[in-house]
Amino acid sequence: MSxxxxxxxxRPETRxxxxxxxxFYGFIHFGMNTMxxxxxxxxxxxxxxxxxxxxxxxQWIQTLKKAGMKGAxxxxxHHDGFCLWPTETTDYSIANTPFKQxxxxxxxxxxxxxxxxxxxxxxxLSPWDRHADSYGxxxxxxxxxxxxxxxxxxxxxxxxEVWFDGATGAxxxxxxxxxxxxxxSCVRSLQPDAVMAVCGPDVRWIGNEAGKxxxxxxxxxxxxxxxxxxTIEKSQTVDDGKFGQAxxxxxxxxxxxxxxxxxxxxxxxxxxxxxxxxxxxxxxxHAEEDKHVKSSEALFSIYKKSVGxxxxxxxxxxxxxxxxxxxxxxxxxxELGRKIKKLETNDCFSAAVVHLNGLIQQDDGFYADGKEGLxxxxxxxxxxxxxxGVILQEDIRLGQQVEQYQIFSDRKGERLLLYExxxxxxxxxxxxxxxxxxxxxxxxxxxRGPYRLKGLRVVSE
Length: 461
Fold this sequence. Notes:
The chain is 24% helix and 28% strand. The protein is of the alpha/beta class.
């Protein structure tokens, strides 16, 4: 049974804070599947098929950057085992394709593009490998996989995230029991500042690939959620086209409230969530999906609920067979970038006169010792403002503390409740119908311990 004091005491690692600050980043699925128009390759596709005529990683990264993304993760190897770099571990790689007469290295081009555009670089290396003969044979495959990780983590600069999924070959008769500790040790020793996500110990999978989020996303959760096997049980094992549409199950809706943690017998850890989905129904490009690209408004809604709901947002954008991102996707991402920029820059809080109750001004934020009960930030303007939201952050270096809050406006003694919730965490985007008002009150009703609020903005119209 965990106490409130224990909940309050859990803190993130430095690497987790840096990752959370990245907020919104891209996933690029590109490889042999792109050439064959499949989602899951079999691992026996002819290497002669891979020859993208116009490949331009700089175009990929510039497209993501315009959308407001701060990082990008490349699918260096998918389940088919085809490697986008000239690895020494297998002949099934870009080195034996017609692309650039066997002299190509897309991981190199991708990481260089990230560096030039100022985006962080991440890698996804599928543990499942349908081409490797050693897959399913235990230690020999673990060694091959660790060698591939070593190549990626030593030859391409700094890595901010290593994405480990739990896909296995169980459904096709071959299952490898992954030596996760060996993989994790490799990452920690070669890229100590990188987080490991999904099956990794640093970042938790949200539980679906449809971009669905919880109402309250807690970063302090039971240690048992970090067991990779649990993620494997919830991972996709069949290419049936349905997995990406699954929503969070009801029994997993609350994983970190005080009531849940008080009943929990496990130690507590800092294990924040990553929300992931694709801009298209599939993860690789398929021309027939050009008419089914998610709208900028749909993606903006996911952004507000993920980045603005104490998680991060990983959005997949798959390039076409020729090696370029389609104009359809570019247009949607340009629109999304403009929406995000407007949300993050339209602010009238700085023009208000601010009064504090139960808090003290501290640097660029507001600090409360957590002992005074209610605390309030009261903003008053000399002229009425049209507002439609509040952006508020906790300084997570002090943990996750706020458990209940309200946002309201006083109108001649009558309170107009605009928003109420439980979790703030790293960032909360609280939106509500547009209202015209001369004042705004942010009231913190309950916390687990001392907290510091920062990044307060009032979204103006």
